[in-house]
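Q: I'm writing a short explainer about Intradiol ring-cleavage dioxygenase for a general audience and would like to include a description of its predicted shape. Could you first generate the structure from this sequence?
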Amino acid sequence: MKTITITFYILIVLGIPACTQPPDTRGSRPVGDGCEGCEAIFEYGKTVLTSTDTLPDYHESGPKMIVSGTIYQSDGRTPAKDIILYIYHTDQKGYYSTRGNEKGWAKRHGYIRGWIKTGADGKYTFYTLKPAPYPGENIPAHIHPVIKEPGIQEYWIDEYLFEDDPLLSPAERNQQKKRGGNGIITLTRNKQGILICQRNIILGKNIPGY
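A: Of course. Here's the predicted structure. Afterward I'll give you a sentence or two in plain language.
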């Protein structure tokens, strides 16, 4: 009888790991209102993310641009640590161009994309070229951003738009939901002639269900 009992307990103990599901490292609390393609934020592979990234187009021909800012917690004051920011945008002709070896969402987002992870100060910077608008359309040039914070499902925030863009009409401005804060940025030039701009992001701001 003792042998049967001991065997029973051993089987239970050994069976526990097989029945236990691994934790969902992609965030357990869903927010937002749907986010097609946002899972691309996990496609950085084995790259060690830092607070700065240089997108693959930066050394190509076109208007060089440096985008920086601070990501804050929902109070709008406390810098947010360990936040992943994924960005992607069109090339100088307005296309999400590929190089032919893309996998996953890169087939649609193109090769001009990057990933950033904030440190304790919440700051981020990325180097890229100013994107062109879609050819033959009245949609302003833009940069797509996706946010992933610990314990929360990834979600999209307002696109980076450019204040001086002639396609940024009053109607387009009024359509902005200001998810994560205001996404319309003003470009200036530094001493090297490079376009610079700043956008701060507030986690959860105007995100449904946050």
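A: For your explainer, you could say: The longest helix spans residues 2-19.
Q: Perfect, that's easy to follow.
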